Amino acid sequence: MNKLFSKLLLFFTGFSSSLVIFIFLLLSYLCIDLFNLNDISNFLSFDWDVEKEKFGIATMLFSTMAISFNALFLAFVFSFSICSIIFLSKNRYLIFFLEKTILLMSAIPTVIYAFAALMTIVPFISTYKPSSTLSILVASIVLSLLLIPTMSLIFLNIFKTLSLKYQSTCLNLGLSRDDFFFKFVLKNSYKNMTGGVILALSRAIGDTMIALMLAGNALSFPTSIFDSSRTLTSHIALIFANDFDSMAFKAIFFCAVLLLGSNFILIFIIKSIRIK
Amino acid sequence: MKKVLTLMVAVASLTLSASSLDDFADLNGSLNIAGGTAHIKCEKQAIKNIMKKYPNISITIAGGGSGIGIKQVSSGIIDLANSGRQPTEVEIEKGDLKLFRFAIDGIGIIVNPQNPISNLTTQQLQKIFSGEIKNYKHFSANSALINLYTRDQSSATRKVFWKKALEKSDIAKTARVVSSNSAMKTVIKNDRNAIGIISLGLVDKNVKLISVNGVHPTLENVKNGSYNVSRGLFLLSSGEPKPLAKAFIKYMRSKEGSKIVSKNGFLATDE
User: Fold this and answer.
1) Shared-domain flag, residues B86 and B117
2) CATH of the domain at B179
3) Rounded CA gap, A147 and B241, in Å?
4) Which of A55, A214, A242 to mutate to test the interface with B (most CBs of B within 10 A)?
5) Is the pTM of this model over 0.95?
6) Do A242 and B67 touch (CB under 8 A)?
7) In total, how many domains does chain B have?
8) pLDDT tens digits for A148-177?
């Protein structure tokens, strides 16, 4: 029975993986028209202007990374702090509250975060910095809320697994609970934590709704976190909603290849960390 | 006497309603519509009336944008497309598209209600939207940076605005881009230094319309031609529309359909 179950699992995993690879190949095929030298240099430029037939997506690629890494930094600080408090605190109510909050946050759809931010954070920032409303900063803050549960749940899982296995031994050897956390748990969990961080990064890169609604989607190259900017996913959504059968439409397939490609790279990094 | 009059009005409105919806009497099945978002508001009301009287008819409506609507109707995925622009000749030829205009929509320039500006000339608009003028102090308002909002380059709303209001002058790349008319209303409402463009049918008290060259963007001014930043709202079919689609187009262009169109801030037309 177990063997049959394992084979079934293997079959479905293989099928899903082939499907993803097929999608990647299909996307690559759909943007194959663009792969001559002139078009590639056009693509890798910073200038997107449909009327002047310029289809550079480097600005969007940069903005995607800027928003994702800012969000990742914020989310890591909060996730690590929350998980440390949960692990170290003796207050059962506080632990219960934090754990349930994380679970609740993981169930909230991204559009709700974006809409709530549009009604609260955007007017707030508009009051103190009127030139910066929809910007990299706002998108990063809200995106970090999306990443917190992803990261926190992985961190908590690692901490709890190590704690279950080694806590009583370490405490019996004379370590305090704080020492056990800082000198043992953290030292032995950084590899798996890196996996969690990279998983959150891939989620940040792939998010559409928050970036589309809050980053402002300007086509200019951003020079500060208060500037408005456009990510690859928002770009795909905006072009796809209004256009088809043009060079701009074909260009978004290249954006999709880049997005899927970056996810493959991140998954590969996670796997290699875990193997080590 | 009063009762008789009320009864007469009721009978008259019932007759009118019956005649507008009569074309659906022998029909059933489903009708799928998708595309431009400006149309949705009035089509929703029409669909409600039709489905209430004929529950065996199912009509679905979705957004997605004019381009998506044109693509889907050309490929036979949907029965009718909503489009806020006239399709190009290539699109018409490729999809064998038939155009049915049922409303005229104006494109207005809007600011936050707290903004004191009430009129801009074409030249001022060109300078604002090209990014040449970046501060409201140039218009004897308080000093504040202008937050520019627009739609994407392939949006029908933006195309009409660019062609007719800006007379094809550049739009700055620093302009923030929002994905729909409703999203535009929300961001302008929440940003006191914002300026953007919107379909007149979606304007309400949360945003303030600005006159262009002294002409206020009202339906009357769109109708008499003094405000020319306007466009047609089209229903498109690939080839001759099917009976249900035909009846829907007829209803949108009927007297009752016109009332719905006018009630939602557009000009009704059947040309």
Assistant:
1) no
2) 3.40.190.10
3) 48
4) A242
5) no
6) yes
7) 2
8) 999 999 999 999 999 998 888 888 888 888
